Amino acid sequence: MGNLANPQNTIAVLKKYQFNFQKKFGQNFLIDPHVLDKILHAADIKKDDFVLEIGPGIGTLTQCLCEHARQVIAVEIDKNLIPILQDTLSEYDNVSIIQEDILKTDIQKIADTYNGGKPIKVVANLPYYITTPIIMGLFESHVPVTSITVMVQKEVASRMKAGPGSKDYGALSLAVQYYALPYLAANVPENCFMPRPSVGSAVIRLTRHENCPVEATDEKLLFHIIRAAFNQRRKTLVNALSNSPELDFDKAFLSDALKACGFSPSVRGEALSLEQFALLSNTLFG
Ligand code: SAM
């Protein structure tokens, strides 16, 4: 089976297996070899790397990963793709396919079984409908991950790397940046996929911090505060936090805490950095 990263070979495989795209699984297959190079380069795949690929599709990116990494595990939900993958990846002996929903997969077990519990690299052209749960699941479960290099919707990539003052800045920016350093590796136009998605795409690498950039006494409280601040982002922080059903602080207490942190009483969440949210969270905890 030849290189799949072009329209002719992709169409030939789809025809051979009479494969029908399933929109519900976010199936947009890559057909551009340059984009594969960019993903591999951004992920910095080396010969001794263990890679987890999420959603291999017909195996286009998987083939490249097998060429460059030591071992690849690919988790694909669509059972109709399994016989295709067995065919397109038949010449590689360093790949295993797991037919499963990635959101229900025990990734820690994969890292333990196949990589002796050592950190893994995650690479994927993600199904966009579950981008956030996949990425936050990987970070929050504390699975050992060195980096996550993924194709995501362009707007989502912008949100992940945005800082205070930007319109894209929000709870996702802070959650991602708490765990990792984002780097936008490439913008990818619609015509690099089959079928074409209705949105622009981008490759982003999230390099996991060895040490968190901030110290939160209570991580859960920090994220409750961040979520509450951006659920009502046009309100002042005091109002947004006092309205939150997840938090139990009255306005006077919140105002005192803001003052103790040196913030304006009318500050909005969108103006605060991760460090400032952590300071507020630790002050409220105290
Ligand atoms: N990697 C292939 C490529 O680049 O051509 C396909 C990428 S396509 C955007 C997303 C893939 O994720 C599809 O193959 C889809 O079936 C799979 N997928 C969707 N939901 C999934 C889930 N919950 N768990 C695992 N795979 C999933």
Structure description:
By secondary structure, the chain is an alpha/beta fold. The protein folds into 2 domains: 7-208, Rossmann fold (3-Layer(aba) Sandwich), CATH 3.40.50.150; 219-285, Helicase, Ruva Protein, domain 3, CATH 1.10.8.100. Helices cover 41% and strands 18% of the residues. The protein contains 12 helices and 9 strands. The strands form 2 sheets. The protein has a 7-stranded mixed β-sheet with strand order 4-3-2-5-6-9-7, with helices on both faces. Helix 6 links the parallel strand 5 (120-125) and strand 6 (145-153). Helix 9 (219-231) crosses helix 10 (237-243) and helix 11 crosses helix 12. The longest helix has 13 residues, at 219-231. The N and C termini lie far apart (62 Å). The mean pLDDT is 96. The chain binds S-adenosylmethionine. The site of S-adenosylmethionine has 23 residues, from strand 1, helix 3 and strand 3.
Summarize the structure.
The chain is of the alpha/beta class and 286 residues long. It contains 12 helices and 9 strands. Helix 11 crosses helix 12.
Number of domains: 2
From N to C, what is the helix and strand string?
Answer: HEHEHEHEHEHEHHEEEHHHH
Measure the end-to-end span.
Answer: 62 Å
Number of strands: 9
Low-pLDDT segments = none
Seen as an oligomer or otherwise, the chain set is single chain
The assigned CATH architecture of the largest domain is 3-Layer(aba) Sandwich
CATH class of the largest domain: Alpha Beta
Helix percent reads: 40-55%
Q: In order across it, which strands form the biggest sheet?
A: 4-3-2-5-6-9-7
Largest sheet: 7 strands, mixed
Counted by DSSP, the helix tally is: 12
CATH superfamily of the largest domain: Vaccinia Virus protein VP39
In angstroms, what is the radius of gyration? 21 Å
Mean pLDDT: 96
Structural class by sheet pairing and helices: alpha/beta
Ligand identities: S-adenosylmethionine
What name does the CATH topology of the largest domain carry? Rossmann fold
Shape: elongated
Strand portion: 15-25%
